[in-house]
Amino acid sequence: MSQVTAPQDGAAVLDAEEIEQISRAAWYYYNDGLTQNQIADMLGVSRIKVSRLLEKGRQSGLIELRINSPHQGSMALQEELIAAFGLADARVVPAAPVGTAGAARIGRAAASLLMQHLVPNDLLAIGWGDATSTTLRYMAPVFPQSNISLVSLTGGVSAYIGTTGLYGPQGFAHLIPTPLRVSSPELAEMLRLEPYVRHVLDMALTAKLAMIGVGSVARSATLVRYGYCTATEIELFTRRGAVGDILGYFYDRDGQILDLEVHRHVVAVTPQDMRQIPSVVAAAAGPEKVEAILGLLRGRLANILVTDEPTARDLLRRI
Amino acid sequence: MSQVTAPQDGAAVLDAEEIEQISRAAWYYYNDGLTQNQIADMLGVSRIKVSRLLEKGRQSGLIELRINSPHQGSMALQEELIAAFGLADARVVPAAPVGTAGAARIGRAAASLLMQHLVPNDLLAIGWGDATSTTLRYMAPVFPQSNISLVSLTGGVSAYIGTTGLYGPQGFAHLIPTPLRVSSPELAEMLRLEPYVRHVLDMALTAKLAMIGVGSVARSATLVRYGYCTATEIELFTRRGAVGDILGYFYDRDGQILDLEVHRHVVAVTPQDMRQIPSVVAAAAGPEKVEAILGLLRGRLANILVTDEPTARDLLRRI
DNA sequence: ATTTGCATGGAACAAATGATCGGTAGCAGA
DNA sequence: TCTGCTACCGATCATTTGTTCCATGCAAAT
């Protein structure tokens, strides 16, 4: 089983003092319009340092840009998506510049959306995937102080949570301590019945908000890259009608979960159970995901969508 | 009666198309880190135009920079204020750089706070003063699309609402169409009983959120500058124990409303009635306001405070 | 004691940004 | 029609910003 390597740069861990310094610099810079030199004088550090502080603040998600327009997003597309698919909310980010990684952009938008919905002491359920991972990266600096807890919907999440290093001692995160997929149905069943696993699975269903990624059925799918599936298996599922997956479960173009052997190997909340969660945020973008998102929305497997502009247009074109 | 002149630059009025363009540019610039040149190419406009779009977005409050730390503000001072005065919330902005106008900074922070509390179709009650005025400036672009309505707590507000030009035809704003202070108690009483005035006064009390400024008793008080009081009167009130005013009513160091003749000339909701509003946000900063804020907080005339760092320290020093 | 790693500060440079200026197009009124 | 008047637009230029390379200092590890 291939290990999950830290995707890009490790999420910076910020201590309270640094957060204070960044906040201060950010205020002076963005709200007061001072130059970095002036700020450096006021803070008693070098101009370079101010530049680095601001950079770190932006990278870590501590400094967030919010655009205030209809429902705090923009683009008429959002309204169309909401109307067309009966969603509770949607967020559409502008088209990706050129060859930039989509997941990071979507993740940022999703983080912003989640933070607007979350209140202190909330519980956030999280699924599996690139988009989920990057979303957490941007939210990480906020959690500790807001008393927001995490709970995983699937196994295999611990890998990329661990890398943030934020959830060490206090344990704000309740993770299913298993892989996403195990080698036999019997083992999967045993794990699901394991008290702590069961406890986490139950807890996940009490969350008010869930955030999941959407997997496509491509040879380069994240599931394949991480070694949970082989390209051959994906091929097979496709012939059975699969257009995408959530939480490791594959579904067809109408969002119906397929009856596949592999599902019996998965340690995760089922999409059926997940309907108990009032708000399920799906984040995904890219031409290869269009079919998967369509199925997801047709099957009402999620009611909030975060995507980008071209993907939104594609979705609307195919009703 | 001196007219209210447009304080600084008139609030820019943005049409839907421009908002779209600004949103898009802002995303590419702040979230994707593209240069203005690249954005210009993508949008098909000149680089300088992008620069101006971004500038306009920041000025108008459409682009908001949010700093995520404890309860989306920063500074341990906030917690101390909340604890010391039994507040529902507080926001402390860093010390003002040098001789910059405090009201604008506080206004921006207040706008950010209000936008986080408001949901579409809410009603926001507003008082009188510089801070209130600048706060509205930053919120103006957001209102029309969010279906947020305004209602004034006092007379004399229409002057600076009118300047934004935003509330022309649709009438999202319900303003008391009188001056703050009139020349005789009889006239004030007649106006208060006037059906429409009465209607607005009643409506104001149904708001969930109110935003007020805090007046100091200085020769340079805003009330004096705008001609509603003479410096001599202020002098007199001070000798009677006044430390500040809200909505045109003066109170003493314990927040008790004084029994002054001038109060009978005021057309406004009374501080007593305002207690019906669950969240009252007071925004003020500066050494000359410290006594006024202290009285306000002691008398529980507001339960949310927006101020700056030196003021917060002063407040805490004097318990 | 030495080494190693890391955060910081400084200098210098290239890139990006914002401000100023003049030009042009619309537009109201004489 | 002409004359201001305003708003927008683009070019130029000074300032600001980010980056690179190197030196320094501190602290943990050897």
TrEMBL record, chains A, B:
The keyword Transcription applies. Residues 72-317 form the Sugar-binding domain. InterPro entries: HTH_CRP (IPR012318), NagB/RpiA_transferase-like (IPR037171), SorC_transcr_regulators (IPR051054), Sugar-bd_dom_put (IPR007324), WH-like_DNA-bd_sf (IPR036388), WH_DNA-bd_sf (IPR036390). GO terms for biological process: regulation of DNA-templated transcription. GO terms for molecular function: carbohydrate binding; DNA binding. It comes from the Bacteria. Coiled coil: none annotated. Keywords: DNA-binding, Transcription, Transcription regulation. Belongs to the SorC transcriptional regulatory family. This is DNA-binding transcriptional regulator LsrR (DeoR family).
